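Design request, tokens follow.
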């Protein structure tokens, strides 16, 4: 079975890591996989994909910026060049001739779908984010209703994400959301399941006890790190015995670093930059508590890795998180965007005794082990692909 996944890039992200781990089972599942990137042809995971036998191709939405001058003229040429994206994608997919096209990247979604339709190749749109379908909702609605219903299949990371993106289609009696499968993105959790978490306080060089908090994610608005830093400034007034490590990089790094300085948290909060996925288990193993303060989310992979590690988790109710974390059982949930509630929740989880942390971490680990097995997920997907091809 030959499949093509269309993604933005091969950088370190939840979708990319998920696909990387799925590709480990391709040979066993009889899959030949090729990835087409739309943003750039590089990325930290590129060599790992190649090592797994995945072919990589590049079809930029906008022509690459080669730094030619005058820049204003080159910028206009590049913008004009984006009009040829549909033709380029059509020719590339026609040459590859896959059995199934899987759209993971929502940029130019309608264009991607119609290219696959013209080629008469089965299409799967995998919805990973709650804001995947923002523009062209009416175009998508009528395209789906009259032309795509029997050709486009949809998988979602969570029920919430599914409803957020295509819930407006419910007005059509022929469309029932419960028929679309929900398959959570995950990774190989083996290394995380064997970690031994310290549920007691850490001891610093000054021999004073402290709690090590941590979080992983891209430094953009959706992750809510500005809210977390602001809340920790309030927490410090009552309990200063904590350190937070934020593993990630992105457009808001300077803004967040300035916010740390503004709140005089330099000795408590550190942004350590992006870490390789191979280092994630080591990072989590050195934490006491994991925090996911997102204001917009899909079904975060790192949250499942933190669960498998056995960490007590504090997470917002953004996106599909409440489908992963059961409040007061496998972790603790607070209202997204509510800094006051986040502050209260931080103080509460920091004051828990080691036995309570261990119990919650144990429950989280068991759920991750049972629900988010990457090999079982790969088999579910293969079964879904085979049913599509049977009906072709």
């Amino acid at each position: 079975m030959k499949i093509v996944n269309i993604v933005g890039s091969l950088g370190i992200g939840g979708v990319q890591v998920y696909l990387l781990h799925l590709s480990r089972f391709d040979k066993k599942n009889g899959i030949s996989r090729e990835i087409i990137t739309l943003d750039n042809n590089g990325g930290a995971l590129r060599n790992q994909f190649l090592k797994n036998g995945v072919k990589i191709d590049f079809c930029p939405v906008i022509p690459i910026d080669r730094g030619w001058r005058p820049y204003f003229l080159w910028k206009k040429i590049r913008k004009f060049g984006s009009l040829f994206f549909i033709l380029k994608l059509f020719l590339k997919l026609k040459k590859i001739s896959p059995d199934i096209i899987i759209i993971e990247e929502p940029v130019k979604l309608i264009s991607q779908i119609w290219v696959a339709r013209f080629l008469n190749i089965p299409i799967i749109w995998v919805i990973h984010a709650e804001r995947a379908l923002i523009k062209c909702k009416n175009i998508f609605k009528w395209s789906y209703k009259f032309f795509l219903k029997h050709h486009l299949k949809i998988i979602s990371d969570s029920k919430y994400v599914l409803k957020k993106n295509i819930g407006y289609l419910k007005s059509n009696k022929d469309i029932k959301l419960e028929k679309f499968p929900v398959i959570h993105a995950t990774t190989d959790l083996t290394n995380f399941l064997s970690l031994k978490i310290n549920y007691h306080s850490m001891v610093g060089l000054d021999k004073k006890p402290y709690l090590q908090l941590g979080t992983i994610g891209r430094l953009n608005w959706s992750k809510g790190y500005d809210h977390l830093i602001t809340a920790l400034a309030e927490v410090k007034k009552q309990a200063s015995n904590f350190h937070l490590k934020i593993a990630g990089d992105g457009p808001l790094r300077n803004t967040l670093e300035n916010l740390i300085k503004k709140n005089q948290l330099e000795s408590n909060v550190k942004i350590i930059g992006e870490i390789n996925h191979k280092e994630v288990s080591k990072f989590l193993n050195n934490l006491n508590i994991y925090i996911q303060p997102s204001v917009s989310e899909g079904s975060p992979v790192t949250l499942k890795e933190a669960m498998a590690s056995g960490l007590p988790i504090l997470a917002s109710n953004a996106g599909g998180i409440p489908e992963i974390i059961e409040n007061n059982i496998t972790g603790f949930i607070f209202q997204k965007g509510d800094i006051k509630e986040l502050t209260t929740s931080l103080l509460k989880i920091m004051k828990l005794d080691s036995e309570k942390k261990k119990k919650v971490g144990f429950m989280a680990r068991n759920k991750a082990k049972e629900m988010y097995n990457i090999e079982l997920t790969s088999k579910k997907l293969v079964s879904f692909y085979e049913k599509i091809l049977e009906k072709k």
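Comment from the thread starter after seeing the answer: thanks! The first strand starts at residue 2 and ends at 7.
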